[in-house]
Amino acid sequence: GQRSSESHKNSNQSFAIVSFNWDHVKEPYIIALWILVASLAKIVFHLSHKVTRVVPESALLIVLGLFLGGIVWAADHIASFSLTPTVFFFYLLPPIVLDAGYFMPNRLFFGNLGSILLYAVIGTVWNAATTGLSLYGVYLTGIMGKLESGLLDFLLFGSLIAAVDPVAVLAVFEEVHVNEVLFIIVFGESLLNDAVTVVLYNVFESFVAIGPMNVTGIECLKGIVSFFVVSLGGTLVGIFFAFLLSLVSRFTKHVRIIEPGFVFIISYLSYLTAEMLSLSAILAITFCGICCQKYVKANISEQSSTTVRYTMKMMASGAETIIFMFLGISAVDPDIWTWNTAFILLTLVFISVYRVIGVVLQTWILNRYRTVQLEIIDQVVMSYGGLRGAVAFALVALLDKEKVKERNLFVSTTIIVVFFTVIFQGLTIKPLVQWLKVKKTEHREPKLNEKLHGRAFDHILSAIEDISGQIGHHYLRDKWSNFDRKFLRKILMRRSAQKSRDQILNVFHELNLKDAISYVAEGERRGSLAFIRSPSTDNMVNVDFTTPLPSTVESSVSYLLREKAGPVCLDMQALEQRRKSIRDTEDTLAHHTLQQYLYKPRQEHKHLYSRHEIMHSEDDKQDKEIFHRTMRKRLESFKSTKLGINHPKKLNKIHKRDRGQKRRNSSVIPNGNIPSENPVQDFTLKEKDLEFSESEENNDYETLHLGKGVDFLANVTKQNFTDTPAGIDNPVFSADDDQSIYTKFSPWLSGEDTVVPSQRARVQLPYSPNFRRLTPIRLSNKSTDSFLLADGPEDRPRSFLPESTHM
Amino acid sequence: GLLSREDFQRIPELAINPLGDRIINAFFPEGEDQVNFRGFMRTLAHFRPIEDNEKSKDQNGPEPLNSRSNKLHFAFRLYDLDKDDKISRDELLQVLRMMVGVNISDEQLGSIADRTIQEADQDGDSAISFAEFVKVLEKVDVEQKMSIRFLH
């Protein structure tokens, strides 16, 4: 002020070339300065690896805040800065929660949703009630001295101190790497308990306001109802905005530059809208992030995706840093300091003890319903990991001194509790975890065997589930997948994305990117990319990844890009490990191939068989392929049992022939007739055959199998049996549109368990000729091959039509 | 009440499960085409979750069907068609082909099979014996992956 007014005075006389306008920029300048200080602090912390390994960053930041607060205080004797609830709730909290939601591992989250909900709702209520009541009880005994609080005040305090805080949990657990189930439960709990906290807080605050006299049963009932309204309402708001966001992202193809902006703006709007409607804003933004993930990631471009990821992380990280720092600063405010030893101590004791009791009880109940049990160790970590943080502080700072007389006491206590949990518990949780040898997330690359057999297990389990009629855990997931594929995808995802964003393809895509980046990194290291052009066998680039890449790589951009925000740990060390373990190129190739091509188990895959219709969709080739193969095998084994004699001989002949030769070459030459021993009837197998694919007509299947199967097979055998040097072809994939001719050669005749390389496999190989042009030889004009011909000339909409679509 | 293969084959989901037919076969004892309820249950029993109290109870008796070892054995038998207690390269190839589909060339598949065997094979016989199978999967949470809660 002074100088500008001086210059103002002077301006009457002369023109000031340069002037110092502090007041002009004061507000944004200070904000920017604080952010800068916080970020610089982070750099300083990470200079010393030893310190950061032991002390969690959050603790360091709080201490820094205390320090800075002390400086400001000493300088000015005013506590000019503090964490105001408005700033916290409107600007600092949303990015953190959005980040949590957007990167939430959905499968894990929803798989454990029951447990998470139990802990979040029941657990928080339990904590709040017991803490509040106990404190009140102790107060009545008089140990605490004279306080101007009633039961409701204590309950209010209990409710705000009970909530486990997502910010603190994230901050600490990230550094600790517990196994993913444990992490998701604690983390999920911390996110979802917001609804409970909000309701309890509001309820008790209004109760306190209207006075304990007026609290009736009706009010309590209203409180309970409001819980449901707040939580479900918040969730719905979030989902609605997620839908909106996904929809918008579908059309942003031409405005790629501002694509990332939509994500943030719309999510933020969901937060504010929920806040406006007094619903749970955290739930809203969480679910917005959770639900929009898939579609947004599929729709937006690669660069936008990266931008979104990085911006989100940056904002979340920045917000978290500022929060903790300001927690420290705000503590240095003598105005609010009220000390009541008993109260403070007892609070600490109560929250810890009751949390442990709560966790143990709930886990005991849960374990009766979970396949994967939560063990003692898990429970210990869960109790110990229940950190309180800034949310509690912000809530308590919101309290009105007029209504809640002991506000300052509550504030002081909250500060101490927060400091205690973050600093002390944060410090000791790592050694605790190590000491207890918690099952940590494994960071090794799964071996080929594990992948393969693991997938086999999944298939087996699906089958057993189906056989035993059990629609377990996966029922809902299936229903959801169905719904998703039928409707949501069509609306929310771009055309191009719908086709290609299969899960496995995604992984393959990412692996490819990783590969490409590795190549470039290697090129950078060697000075040029010339090595790629060196001739090598099988078109594989002989880049030697076995030599450990020197540390110069780390500084390159490519390394940065490789860092993927994984679900659980963002620890650079872990990522390093993962990267290093895939060294061998061949190994990598094998892994990639498996990853790409292994059939998905039913759990991740759409249910083709709905009860009412045979669905056909271009995406689900997997089911088609398997179905064909299975049916063929069955008919063949059926035939071999029923027809018997000559059959095996033929089998052997072809068998031997096939084995000897490479299956890759040449075309199929339909040969002359090989007389069939079986009486052949012209058999029309039209409608009925289609039916055996339908589940309703199951009874027909058997008859079909018995009667028609024979004849149908016989028919087919009758005509052309090819002399296929290439042996087994998959006629399904002959892309011939001529629909009436499919069977020229009978794959099933070549032996039950011989591997069937499909036509498509051949087509894709660079040097295999395309033998789609098979000389059509009609069967007797009436018999049609059933399932191979589902889309007969009669224009059946259902099709197992082999690809007239693009391959 | 006897079940035949057709009864199983009528379950539509099995038709689109790559290992469907083999799993059906696993229900039927050697050479037979019918299975009674007891046999049916026996196979399903492999998939009961492993419970803690069972671990300590029956140390002396025969190993329960749903032990980790038996679960693995169930899977092993799916691969090992000729029942020689080894998964040969061909058998592995067959399973791979079933599980992988049509887009991989034979060469690639062969090389994957080779590497898989290589990873697991310890005695150098180019086949995976049951012991090697168990060893290579020691880190996999078989108990969870092969368990269903049947009756609450």
From TrEMBL, chain A:
A Pfam family of this chain: Na_H_Exchanger
Stretches for region Disordered: 650-680, 786-807
One of the record's GO molecular function terms: potassium:proton antiporter activity
Transmembrane segments: 29-47, 59-75, 87-104, 116-139, 151-173, 180-204, 224-248, 308-329, 341-364, 376-397, 409-429
GO CC, alphabetical: brush border membrane; early endosome membrane; recycling endosome membrane
Residue spans of biased composition, Basic residues class: 650-665
GO biological process: regulation of intracellular pH; sodium ion import across plasma membrane
Cell compartment(s), UniProt: Apical cell membrane; Early endosome membrane; Recycling endosome membrane
The Cation/H+ exchanger transmembrane domain, residue ranges: 35-435
Biased composition (Polar residues): 666-680
Catalyzed chemical reaction(s): Na(+)(in) + H(+)(out) = Na(+)(out) + H(+)(in)
The entry's keywords: Antiport, Cell membrane, Endosome, Ion transport, Membrane, Phosphoprotein, Signal, Sodium, Sodium transport, Transmembrane, Transmembrane helix, Transport
Domain of life: Eukaryota
Its membrane topology: Multi-pass membrane protein
InterPro entries in the cross-refs: Cation/H_exchanger_CPA1, Cation/H_exchanger_TM, Na/H_exchanger_3/5, NaH_exchanger
PANTHER family according to UniProt: SODIUM/HYDROGEN EXCHANGER, SODIUM_HYDROGEN EXCHANGER 3
Purpose of the protein: Plasma membrane Na(+)/H(+) antiporter. Exchanges intracellular H(+) ions for extracellular Na(+) in 1:1 stoichiometry, playing a key role in salt and fluid absorption and pH homeostasis. Major apical Na(+)/H(+) exchanger in kidney and intestine playing an important role in renal and intestine Na(+) absorption and blood pressure regulation.
Family: Belongs to the monovalent cation:proton antiporter 1 (CPA1) transporter (TC 2.A.36) family.
Protein name: Sodium/hydrogen exchanger
TrEMBL record, chain B:
Start and end residues of each EF-hand domain: 67-102, 108-143
InterPro entries: Calcineurin_B_homologous, EF-hand-dom_pair, EF_Hand_1_Ca_BS, EF_hand_dom
Gene of this entry: Chp1
Gene Ontology CC terms: cytoplasm; nucleus; plasma membrane
Keywords from the named record: Calcium, Cell membrane, Cytoplasm, Lipoprotein, Membrane, Metal-binding, Myristate, Nucleus, Phosphoprotein, Protein transport, Repeat, Transport
Name used for this protein in its record: CHP1 protein
Organism (species): Origma solitaria
Record carries keyword Transmembrane helix: no
Family: Belongs to the calcineurin regulatory subunit family. CHP subfamily.
